[in-house]
Amino acid sequence: MHSVVARPASNAAIAAGFLRFCSFLFPLLAKPLCTIHFSRLFGLTSGSDFVFTRAQPLAVAALLLITGINCLGVRLGGQVQVGLTILKVGAVLAIIAGGFFLVRETPHRLSPLWPVSPGWGTLTGFLAAMGAAVWAYDGWNDLNLVGSEVENPERNFPRVLVGATIFVIVTFLLFTAVCFYALPFNAIASSQHVASDVFASFAGHHAALWITLIMAISALGTLNSSVLSGARVDYAMARDGLFFRSIAKVHPRFRTPENALIFQCCLACLLVLSGTFEDLTSLVMFGSWTFYGLAVLAMMRMRHTEPNMPRPYRTWGYPVVPIIFVLGAGSVAVGLWIARPVRSSIGMALVIAGLLFYRMWEKRLGG
Questions:
Q1: pLDDT of 295-316, one tens digit each?
Q2: What is the distance between the alpha carbons of residues 182 and 180, in angstroms, rounded to a whole number?
Q3: Is pLDDT above 70 for 39?
Q4: Between residues 132 and 66, which one has the greater pLDDT?
Q5: What are the chain's domains?
Q6: Mapped to the 3 state alphabet, what secondary structure does the chain carry?
Q7: Entry pTM
Q8: What pLDDT does residue 105 have?
């Protein structure tokens, strides 16, 4: 799931998001080159259009650039990450500060706060929107991918995971408050460049261009961290004999998992050419939250099957908290499948196909 669906799709979605920032600077990028209409499929969809724009080939170029940087060494990739992260946080804080200090006229924006006639469509829409919201927090699990390089993980993992998540929650709540502080609800709902439109509303279009440029550059930082961490899983599986052997190759000079990075990049490029930002994020979250729920169920089972294993960290409120998490993860996954059944089903089919390869590699290790 991680190597064939979630991480390549995540990289593709981030690259597509980067080009969405760029399309605010250069609107020509968002104009379609061709459109293909797909009719109703097996009663699951009402028909859809596949739109190919100039932005998609440029998103491929961004993926190739960041992958190339990571092939040249971890130190270079880390230095790039630090600089771009500072830009990203700085841009978001600038929008928050500017909104609260510069906006003068603020009619009531949160209207209607609740749906006039809630129903099944309201619930499924809410769950689909949750999929997009939780994607913004999905970086929490990347810490686990470099766990062997973290000192005193029993103490540092809970501190970093909880502290970073709280920081992101507070930052996003303030950012959302500024959005509704500056723009009407309908304007936000229809906007393709929310941050840029919000900043333009109180600082002018020229200032919004600069803040958008900073956020576009910082989006490359998000892409860099995703590329850097994701390829390590492919490499580790191949090293342990549970993935294609060639993926375990390390560059003789730069000591980076070169083939794992290339493999990940190729899949991401195919995906970024095949769908929109919303399609890709939905695919990532459907696969990821299905497996987050399964991982917690597996942990609960291992509490009984492996009672003597060391437990350096114990879950507060066990087993109620894990059960609530599993129910929430399942709700997000089901909501995303209802919203985009075809793409989600294709993703799950790829994951299930991986079981055949896994059994083959497992038998090879056993033999």
A1: 999 999 999 999 898 887 788 8
A2: 5
A3: no
A4: 66
A5: 2-110+117-275 (1.20.1740.10)
A6: CHHHHHHHHHHHHHHHHHHHHHHHHCHHHHCEEEEEEECCCCCCCCCEEEEEECHHHHHHHHHHHHHHHHHCCHHHHHHHHHHHHHHHHHHHHHHHHHHHHHCCCCCCCCCCCCCCCCCHHHHHHHHHHHHHHHHCCHHHHHHHHCHHHCCCHHHHHHHHHHHHHHHHHHHHHHHHHHHHHHCCHHHHHHCCCHHHHHHHHHHCHHHHHHHHHHHHHHHHHHHHHHHHHHHHHHHHHHHCCCCCHHHHCCCCCCCCCHHHHHHHHHHHHHHHCCCCHHHHHHHHHHHHHHHHHHHHHHHHHHHHHCCCCCCCCCCCCCCHHHHHHHHHHHHHHHHHHHHCHHHHHHHHHHHHHHHHHHHHHHHHHHC
A7: 0.80
A8: 62
CA distances to 145, 217, 277, 348 from 288, rounded to whole Å, are: 15, 26, 16, 11
Q: Please give the structure tokens belonging to residue 122.
A: 């309201």
Amino acid at site 60: V
pLDDT by residue (tens digit) across 262-292? 999 999 999 898 877 777 888 888 888 999 9
Residue bearing tokens 């499929």: 41
